[in-house]
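Take a record.
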Amino acid sequence: MFRNVFLICLCLSVALAEEVKEPTNTQEAVMARVNGEAITLRQLEDELMRQEGMQTIEDLLRTQLVKTDWASLNDEDIIVKVANIEIPRVLLVNKLLEKYGADVREQMIDAMLVKQAIKSAGIVLDDKLKKEILERLKRKYYYDQEQKGDTVVPFDTMIQEKYGKTEEQWIDDPAFLTLSGMTALLYKEAEITEDELKAYYIEHAHRYGVPEAYEIAVILFPLINEKGKAHDRATQELVRKNAKSTMAAISSKRRSFKSFAGMFDRAHKGERGFVARDGKSTVKGVARVPKPVMEAIFRHNYEAFPKAIGPIESE
């Protein structure tokens, strides 16, 4: 039994060794076979170059060019050399001037103006301030995205796609420096001292003051008829007596206020909403509460609410 196993293993090892025999030319190495047809290493490499070569070269160039000291280069210095193609600085600059020159010139003018302005205003755009402004920009960006209802792209992803830089790199970008400088100027202009704030409040206190008001409900017992003429004395005394008995019933809680109010005011059940000293109600369509009633309401000392007071007689 042991001899048979040994012989099988020996045969397999020889067969495998013959299968993976390396070619003399490395690029002719077979990476896979499909129904007997080989895919060589060189074919795989060429396909990778076709599909991903350009993007990979761009990524490599970006990584290296970020570190380049552009001011130290002469016109004849070679920026990029790919295969047999060389791109000197002068060729690249001419192409850039033709395509982007006008826009970048305006950006430089804006940046210079902002730089001069923040210096004149005594603003130091240090790392701490730049980071604070960056956080404000982030909050505004996310707020705007939510308001639009769009799919929210992460802020750092947006910066990478738009500027080709990370957040840390973008902080030192001229576009960010201009934007952060303008933001710092705006915040400085918006600064208000405590004395200025107090003075403004005193001057415009009428805009912020909310008048004291009570939420009230009223039952009116008219001493006049529908034509506006006063009832005779006997009728008036009967009305006063009715008002007092109603008040007694409400105070003793034998009857609810609304049960009486509905008899006299079907539309609003006596409710007047919040009413200030002038008697004007917040409920549309109801009459102004008479002055003597409001004076009595504001004169009364309330230990608990709701509270029934009256009857109060007014013209």
